[in-house]
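Field reference: sequence -> structure
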Amino acid sequence: MSTTEIKFKPADRLKNARKSAIRRIVDASRPGSINLGIGEPDFQTPEVVRREACRVINEELNGYTMNAGSDSAAPAHRGISF
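Structure field:
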């Protein structure tokens, strides 16, 4: 073993660890499926989004909202259907 090589032995308690449910779902997907999981966008974040993010952080308005959203965000998502 070289000086830069690190020998790793997982803890015994990990022998019976299972993959998470989401990992099992992704693993079971058909070849060629589109993965909508974590990834990097292929475009720059729009200036308006970056500017608004900075404003919200600077004004310390970055806490959690009610699950229905905040009143100030309502105009931004009106008319969007899912």
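Note: Helices lie at 21-27, 47-58, 74-77.
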